[in-house]
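Open question from group meeting: does this chain pack into something compact, or does most of it stay loose? Before anyone orders reagents, we agreed to write out a predicted structure and look at it together. Recording both the input and the output here so the notebook holds the full record.
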Amino acid sequence: MIKIGDWLSEGWALIKDDIVTFAVAALLVGLIGSLTLGICLPALSVGLFMMVFKKMRGETIAIGDVFQGFSKFGPAFVAVIVLAVAVGLIGVVLNFIPILGQIAASLLGVVVGGAMFYLLCSHLSPLLTSAA
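Structure tokens returned:
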């Protein structure tokens, strides 16, 4: 059974001691991502995930860690392109079915997005276990 409350509690417990660091890093991701018209957004998002993984390993994090995602720029950018094309094309087709198509397209976005995140994390798996 899925316990969303437990996931949220665990997530909060992970970031609460470094909330300012994570907040500033997230603001940088949004700001720089917007200023670069989304081109840098995949790499910066990966950097944010890398910060979380680093925190999960008990290591100290810094705001500048968000830029480490640029070391994975290629895979991150390809993952976002594949996600956008898949959801866009299938979403257009599904939207011809009133209401049901919109619900299905939204669910598809969540599933494909989750799959892409899984693939990206699999690509980053050495980072999860290394002491960096």
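Observations to bring back to the group:
Confidence is low (pLDDT under 50) at residues 127-132.
Residues 39 and 130 are 28 Å apart (CA to CA).
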